Amino acid sequence: MDRDYGAPERKFLASETALSVTEGSLIEGYASLFGQADQGGDVVVAGAYGASLARLAAAGRRVKMLWQHDPTQPIGVWDEVREDAKGLWVKGRILPDVDKGREAGALLAAGAIDGLSIGYRTVKAEKNAKGQRLLQEVELWEVSLVTFPMLAEARVATKGQALWTELAQAVRDARRALIPTPGHSGG
Description:
Largest sheet: 10 strands, mixed
Number of strands: 10
Helix content: 10-25%
Order of helices and strands: EEEEHEEEHEEEH
Distance between the termini: 41 Å
Mean pLDDT: 79
Structural class: alpha/beta
């Protein structure tokens, strides 16, 4: 089903390892992960952001950093937004000279907010056999810091937490590889 939906949409991502915060205002991590269904049944396909990011770069424009998808409340700048094999990676700065930016930094530091969400327009999508909408191409407008993310894998990590979370996952993966699960022979 090739179709231009046209309406603005938002996709939330929350993960223990999605975003790290350093020095109170520098943030980086994944705003979207490929191949994972969100609560609305949408799945972003690898490469979905490529054309949009190329158009923005050619025009000398950037993806906006907003507070809770409010276009009247920019809170910082995304210095780098790119696709990799895992998803949409972002790196930027919350601006402490902006009132909402200062608030966002304080809320992140306290753990009161921890989600990311993308604002976009669907350019091309189709349904799969499970009834999920596969987003094959989207026009990315903004990445927001949000309270309630839609995809459970995108939560903000505090300084150092992302490294420890990745290390813990590596240990769990190694343990699974070495120790058979009960009821399985391990091979």
